[in-house]
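Researcher: Here's the sequence for the chain we discussed earlier.
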Amino acid sequence: MQVKKGAQILVNLTNDAWFGFSSAPYQHLAMSVLRAVENRRPLIRAANTGISAFISPSGKIEERSPLFVEATMIREVHPVSSHFSFYTRFGDVFALLFCAVSMMILLWCWTRTTGRDNKNTQAHLKNIHKALE
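Model: Thanks. This is the structure I predict for it:
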């Protein structure tokens, strides 16, 4: 992650022409907002077909260009040298921990129901066998 290496401003250069007038450029803008917030850094997004934007560390879109409209935007952006955010420090540790705990719970539930179902199935088969005799 560049922020850990000292980046004070994030820049996102992109080619969204592939997606035309679909929702993809708007989704990419939303992802840029999340990237700015999770790292607590201002983000400058420059897209050849729009949507270009200036995004504050809090996620506010300060200025943006429309989709497929030629535009020039000039804005003063101040570097941020604040402390690292939780995400910058630890990355996906929380998500990985959540996945590990979820897998353990699922495994525990599966082992409990599998054993019980197996016993019930065996008892049911014995009853069927007795009925057929």
